[in-house]
Design goal:
Elements (H helix, E strand, L loop, with lengths): L1 E5 L3 H13 L3 E5 L2 H10 L4 E4 L8 H7 L1
Parallel strand pairs: 1-2, 1-3
């Protein structure tokens, strides 16, 4: 399973990534709304963990545009 973690707080993003990878998931991290939008529209993910308050596009703007 491939998971996109969208989180601008690096410590939180790394903790989520490490925990999910320990459970054998493939994890990609995006730290900005723009990076997340690009990845969502160009790559395939089974699950997206999306922070609402992000630099650039916020989580709700991303949801509305994909």
């Amino acid at each position: 399973m491939r998971i996109l973690v969208v989180e601008d707080e690096l410590k939180v993003a790394n903790a989520l990534k490490e925990g999910l990878e320990d459970e054998r998931y493939e994890v990609v991290v995006a730290q900005t709304g723009e990076d997340a939008f690009f990845r969502i529209t160009t790559e395939k993910f089974d699950l997206i963990l999306l922070d609402l308050m992000l630099p650039g596009r916020d989580g709700l703007q991303i949801l509305a545009s994909v």
